[in-house]
Amino acid sequence: MKPPAVLWKLRARGLEDARQAVKRGSPEGLHDLRVALRRAAVTSAALGKKRLARRARAIARSLSQPRQLEVDRRLLERIGRLGVLSPDAVTALAARWEKLAARAARKLSRATDGHRMQRLRRRLDALARKRTNRGLRRLGKARRQAEQTLSRSLEGRDDRTLHRFRIAVKRARYLSEDLAAIGLPETPEEAARERALQEALGRWNDLRGFRRRLAEGRDDAERRGTVALAGEIERLLAALEPALDAARASAVAASRRSARVIPMRPAVRARA
User: Residue 253: CB partners within 8 Å, gap ≥ 6?
Assistant: First the structure.
C-alpha cells in the first residue's frame, strides 16, 4: 500500500495541469480546474486538512457560475441548430450571455493566478514533499461515510436534496479514486454504478441551471419590452419541462439502483 503523500503529489500535479489548461485556452480548462479543486478539497478534508479543504472549495465555488454559463451557452448553440428558437432570439440571448462570459473570464483569471490559488499550490507542494503514512484510516472512514450517504434513495426528495446528493456522489467517487491510488481499487461494478449516478444527476443539474438562465433572459426581455423574445423564451421554458422531469426521474431511478446494491468497504488499516 502506498503512503498518503502520493495523494498530495497527485493533487498538486492535477491542479497545476488544470491551471495550465486554462492558460492555454483549452475548451475543458474551466471544467478541469474545478474538478482539480474539488478533488483537492475532498482529499484534504478526509486527511484532516480542514483549512486547506475550505480554501480549495472556496475557489471552486467562485467558478460555479462561470462553469454553468459555459454549459448554458453550449445548450443554446444546440437549440439554435435544432431550430427551437428563431435565429433572432438565439442571437439576442447569445449577445446577452456574451457580456456575462466576459465577466466570467475575468473571474477565471483571478481564480487561476490569484493569491488564494498561490497559497493553495504552495501548501499542496509542501505536503507532497512530506513522507508520512498518517491518514489512511481517515481516508477509509470518509469513504465509508460517503457510501452510507449513497445508500439512500432520492425518491420523494426535493431539488435541494438532489443537489446535495450530486455533490456527495462526486465526493464518494473522488475518495474511491484516492483509495485506488494508494492500492485499494474499487470494483468495476462499483465504479460504473457511481459514474452512472453522477452522470444522471449532472444532466438534471445542467438542465435545471439552463432553465434558470433562460428565465432570467425572459425576465430581462419583459423589462425591456421585447415582447416577441419574451414569448419565445416562455415557450422554450414550457418545452423544457418534460426533458427536465425525465432527467430528474432518471437520477432518482439511478439512486434507487445504487441504494440496493452498495457494498460497504472494509476498514483501512494504517501501516506500522
Answer: 200
